[in-house]
Input
Amino acid sequence: MFRRSIAFSFLDKSTGFVLALVTMAIVSRLMTPSEVGLFVVASSLVILLEAVRDFGVAAFLIQAKELQPELVRSAVTLIGLISLTLGLFIAFGADLAARLYGMSELADLIRIAALAFLVAPLSNPLLALLRRDMNFAAVARISVAAALANALVTIGLAMMGYGAFSFAWGSVVAACVMAAGALICRPEWWIFRPTLRHWRTLLPFGAWTTVVTLLGMLFDAMPRLILGKVLGFNAVGLFTRAVSLSQMPDKLFLSAVQPVVLPAFSSQVRSNQGLAGHYLHGIALITVLQWPALICLALLADPIVRLLLGPQWLGVIPLVRVVAIAAMVLAPVFLTFPVLVAMNRVRDLALISLLALPVSMLIVLVASRFGLQAVAWAMIPANAVYIGMTLICIHRAVQFAWRDLAVIVSRSAVVTLCTGLVPGALVLAFGAELSWPVTILGAVGAAVGWGASLAMTSHPLASEISRLPMPRLLARGVRRRGGIGIP
Output
């Protein structure tokens, strides 16, 4: 069941990744960095409120040991009331944000992006119930349809000259498609009958989960919000594109795992099983997928940026090289929230985030005074502070051995080093501006180095790959050929 869910989740996320990549490549040639930066600031402010609107209802519905009908209805009613309140807050507060950044268009962008608040109470609880049931086939269909709608609307409006508003309307249409799909796949209309009978059960979990989610989103949005105020929207656009490129490995490989992890870990906890082994295995798989991809991105940043973004975004290249390395530090973050929520220790994560965020924010704020490149470098210590604290928190929760973690990380580090040998040698020989034949050679060399080092280090991913259908079919074919005397 778990591997089947991962397969559907990977189909969902990989399709969304391809659509987002195509959208980014096309739209980046139609918009300036300032236009992209304007939307990023608007969406960042809305996303921060999104954390409050959800109030941890989705996570609660997934991890709860028993779901009584009135409990589900209470959760849905609560999220509806919060959405309405925040929608009104955004409608009346958008002008204040526009005055803060000195850009009148920002108010209209915020209001449009906030229209998704009207439909999110329909989709979020139903999608949470589908994930609780491990029905990731339905979730994949809904998400792919929403991603396709987002891409078509955004690209279409951008070609018509709507600029930053293209992104805003694309996100609204995607939210509507998501809600419609959820209602079609799970038409549980009874959950929308209002009641607040179990609000006392929801309040503690929702409050701490909201704090954690809000702080996590603020940690992600913090550099963009600071840059928008200190260095302007052009700097925000460049930095955002660098972060987007560095997140490509996460969206391709890791985003498929994260939605499945919380239901799976919650099931393990409900069965009174420990999570230490599962957590370490997850870290092994995450680092051996993410780190090699990021090191290749840092080494081949020049040709990748020229291909995906075009010549007006060449200022992103030096940022990508640094931001990709900073992203490697964040590898454990993908399992932090699922583990602690499954063990009902989300309060611990909230306290850790409250301590780490001000330190990280101060680091980025000081660096912004020295320019965009300094902010990129500042992300390394900022990320390290956050991850260091969360690792300590998880260690106390699941009681893994530090030595076992070091062994796993060292194996992934060896694989990462072997993956980067050929691209690194080509960069040293030919310079950073590689021709396409040399770039392709570097990519092929990286893939060969990654595969060979997996076997050499006996990495856990190698055994996972051997369980896939294709390797087993090939193995049976080899045995069959051997059985009839074919050399």
